[in-house]
Amino acid sequence: MTQEQTNLTIDNPKMSARDVKVFYGEKQAIKGVSIDVGMDHVTAFIGPSGCGKSTFLRTLNRMNDTVASARVEGEITLDGENIYAPSMDVVQLRARVGMVFQKPNPFPKSIYENIAYGPRIHGLAAGKADMDVIVEKSLRRAGLWDEVKDRLHDSGTALSGGQQQRLCIGRAIAVEPEVILMDEPCSALDPIATAKIEELIHELRGRYAIVIVTHNMQQAARVSQRTAFFHLGDLVEYGVTSDIFTNPRQERTKDYITGRYG
Amino acid sequence: MAEHTIKAFDEEIDRLRGLIAEMGGRAEAAIENAMLALQRQDKKLAAEVVADDKRIDAIEAEVEKLVIQVIALRAPMANDLRDVIAALKIVSVVERIGDYAKNIAKRVPLIATNKRTLEPIALLPSMGQVAGEMVHDALNAFAARDADLALAVIERDTVVDDFYNSVFRTLVTFMVENPKTISECAHLLFVAKNIERIGDHATNVAEMVYYAATGQTLPERERGADIQPED
Lengths: 262, 231
Known about the structure:
The complex is a heterodimer of chains A (262) and B (231).
Chain A: E1 15-24, E2 27-37, E3 42-46, H1 53-59, E4 70-78, E5 81-82, H2 90-96, E6 97-100, H3 111-121, H4 128-141, H5 145-148, H6 161-174, E7 179-183, H7 191-204, E8 209-213, H8 217-223, E9 226-231, E10 234-240, H9 241-246, H10 251-257
Parallel strand pairs in A: 3-8, 3-9, 6-7, 7-8
Antiparallel strand pairs in A: 1-2, 1-4, 4-5, 9-10
Chain B: H1 7-40, H2 43-74, H3 78-112, H4 124-144, H5 147-177, H6 182-214
Helix pairs in contact in B: 1-2, 1-3, 1-4, 2-3, 3-6, 4-5, 4-6, 5-6
């Protein structure tokens, strides 16, 4: 094991992974990763393509369950509770640990319905008035309310890419999650839309534990307070973002972030 | 060190390091020639030192421009970031070193007008040599990213400080005994102070080199010569 980290453990972790290994059939994609994710900071996962950062992110709300050949070993806890325990309700888990994907994927329904869908199936609203409150609150938190309040019944897919992505964040927020996982949420967006998402991430910090996978190192530097560098299935280094970007401990981290990789 | 995937980045870093090496070489030569001019009372050499300082200033401006360009276009990280920040700080310090050498050279004609032998002048070349070597080693340490060599430079600063205290006492004594030399001796006192400041600045360069090489900053230390009040 070449894994070495700084600040591995944090106080009151929201989620903890211990010696997590992921296999796709015979191939091992994650080689024993241990990491804590806290409420107080945004955690960024960086690393070259194929390093396992997205695979690892997807273990945090059991999205890998949908991949038939995937097998996860080790322990991952949410508030101390093992999320891979047989008693864990996966639907409930994914409400608590929400996810935002690379390409904005709003439902082909109205803006209002995109937000209302989750709360409705989870029974979070007592009636129409209740639901209106949830929709407005979620869209406000997603920084989208002012732009869409007069056309809530237009289709979500008619929005711009950046607005669609904020709609997806609003949709994740609507079911009152505790953790939000973001898998390259800005890679399909222009710089202005990206800046709006980054500002949103900043505003959401503290209210939710946020983990973001990004190929854009500047983005990791801008939005996160903790950065984890993955390489070939190892967590090579995990530390305070400003330390990682000014004085990384590991040669592999340094080569990657200074553009000397490969 | 491995090369950057983007070759132009390496070329810019190389150019930056080349400019700093040239600047350091010129500052060293300025110190050496200023001291030589003082010793030999060579006004022509002194005038050359003053004129050559323009090139040192020009390199500072060039490095500043290049550093801003690299930060804006390459977004350097980790050791690259530390290198360019150190480069920016080092050139402003080396520019000051050049100014001190120039200031020494400017005093040469004022001291040389008097043919009388000023005994205390004899103390200054060795002091200048120590300070010049500190500048030389600090810039070599930058070129080699050598933290140990940088630390060795920092330790040598006390030698220059001790020299300064010794020259100070000697000059005061000499002035008391030879009141007609007070004007020249006052200039020599400034020369000694300039050399002492060069030593301090070489130490500052070494601290930046240490930071660039290791990512760690050295604890703040006492700067400047500690002048003991006379009884």
